Amino acid sequence: MSYILGSDAIHADRARSGPRGHALRWGLVLGATIALHGAALLWFAGHRDTFAPEVVKPPVQIELLTAQPIARTAPERNAAIAHELSERSRGRQMPVLHALAPEPRAPSTPEAARATDANATTPGRAAGRHATNPASAAAAVPASVASAGVRFSVPPSGDLHYNTFYNGVENAPGTIHWASEGDDYEMVVSVPLPFVGTYTYASHGRIDAFGLAPVRYTEKRGRRAEDVTTFDRTAKRIGFTRTNVTLALPDGAQDRFSMVMQLASLVRGDPDAYKSGVTRAFYVADDDSGELWPIETIGDESVRTAEGFVQARHFMRLPRREGDRRRIDVWLAPTLGWLPVRIMQTEPNGSQFELLWRGRLAPPGAENASTGTTPDDSSESGPAGSSPEPVREQP
Question: Most buried among 91, 98, 113, 312, by the most CB within 10 A?
Answer without folding.
Answer: 312
